[in-house]
Specification:
Structural class: alpha+beta
CATH class of one domain: Mainly Alpha
CATH architecture of one domain: Orthogonal Bundle
Order of helices and strands: EEEEHHHHHHEE
Shape: elongated
CATH topology of one domain: 434 Repressor (Amino-terminal Domain)
CATH superfamily of one domain: lambda repressor-like DNA-binding domains
Strand order of the largest sheet: 1-2
Largest sheet: 2 strands, antiparallel
Number of strands: 6
């Protein structure tokens, strides 16, 4: 039975190629050449975002790198420290909400929505400009909380 060629150059340790590659002779000996690296990355990404269970640190890093994001950039978009992202990638413990977020962003990226990071930053800025007010009121024998949101009157300088 042909198991294919164990391919780790993509950053994942669990990929075996059975197609989409050729072996070329070089001065250093036979070398593996992936026929279409972008196509391979997209195929792997769709497989990763469609599978059940939490992404591993390797898988999280693969998707981040495929989209051209650095750890600091992704950490800013997610609202965590760069060290948190590095920890998730090295220790295979990605928080579920961050896993789901990265899967959604990857799907947007694969669908051609390259502007998704700008949209996330736009939402973050809007949240900074919004004041939330919670009013606790008595309704019958129960306390109820009413939420009111409004834009701040004073401009906020974003750094």
């Amino acid at each position: 039975m042909d198991d294919g060629i164990h391919y780790t150059a993509c950053g994942l340790s669990n990929v075996w190629l059975k197609a989409g590659y050729e072996i070329k002779d070089s001065d250093e000996g036979p070398r593996l050449r992936v026929t279409d690296r972008g196509d391979l990355q997209r195929a792997l990404a769709y497989a990763l975002i469609g599978r059940a269970g939490c992404l591993t640190g390797q898988e999280f890093r693969f998707l981040r790198r495929m989209m051209g994001l650095t750890q600091p950039r992704l950490s800013t978009l997610m609202g965590f420290s760069r060290h948190a992202v590095a920890r998730w990638e090295s220790r295979d413990r990605v928080p579920l909400a961050c896993d789901h977020c990265l899967r959604q962003w990857t799907l947007a990226w694969l669908s051609g929505r390259m502007d998704w990071p700008d949209r996330v930053e736009q939402a973050q800025r809007l949240d900074l400009l919004t004041e939330h007010r919670y009013e606790v009121v008595q309704e019958g024998s129960r306390l109820q909380v009413r939420t009111q949101s409004s834009l701040l009157a004073q401009p906020v300088v974003l750094g």
